[in-house]
Design brief:
With about 300 residues, this protein is an alpha+beta fold. The chain has eleven helices and 13 strands.
Length: about 300
Amino acid sequence: MIDVLTNEEKIGFALRQLYSQKGYRHYSMSKFEEYDFYARNKSFLVSDAVITFTDTNGKLMALKPDVTLSIVKGSRLSDEPLYKVYYNENVYRVSSLSHRFSEITQTGLECIGQVDDECRAEVLSLAAASLRYISPESILSISHLDILSGFVKAMGLEDDEERAVLKCIADKNLSGISEISDNENADRLKELISTSGKPSEVFPKLRQLGCSDEYFRQLEKLIGDLEKNGYGDMVNIDFSIVNDQTYYNGIVFRGFVSGIPFRVLAGGQYDGLLKKMGRDDSAIGFAVYLDMLDYLPKEKIGLNIETGEETV
């Protein structure tokens, strides 16, 4: 029976089991929401292209392009100090593979409420475990937006210049940063981006560059927890990971596996989204893009689906 399952089905089933065993409850939702809900948060979406239709009552509706927004909206009904859920849902948006609208299956989890370092460490470890379930040849790339933001703010730029610098960071375009600003603080930012790599290589440079002690200690502790949990060999620090800082802050991360040229996992802390929705809580989570996994040869899958054990 196992042989007839696709990679997407095998890994999706295993990840749902993993998250359930760690105390996350299953969350399910409607296939569509009012379009205005997504229009107000378009820059939070992976793609701003949304499939819409007019309902029988005349309201403009949208096929769900994102899961996190719906979960945050639904979590308002909970009185738990930490709202922990996982999901397995189809979203409808432009695929990075076909560049056309597609029905894409995602599995992931969200923690909303009193998020602390223990919660962040748990989410990062589950992200690493998810990648290892997919393939033993996997990398979890981690950034800290508050560290990066400190270096960018020190440049004293106008808002449009900051946005241009952030785009250069995402593109790893160091010469583009120099064209916008060519001073000592720009040089510090370029050094920060250029020292991406293993924590043992990056941490000494962060100390030399004089990043915030608070955020450095947080990053160091979270990566130390990953190492204690057996995921240290997967960790890569990469300050070119840039999410919209209107929504995201703190730890952000992406997951990659050998044989697939695109990210298969993405996540981070998104307190800004909750603030925009009028809430003082924190939130962190990630999604696994299961549509990518059928591009992975079956012999490279990291999970023995029959035993539920990682092949590491």
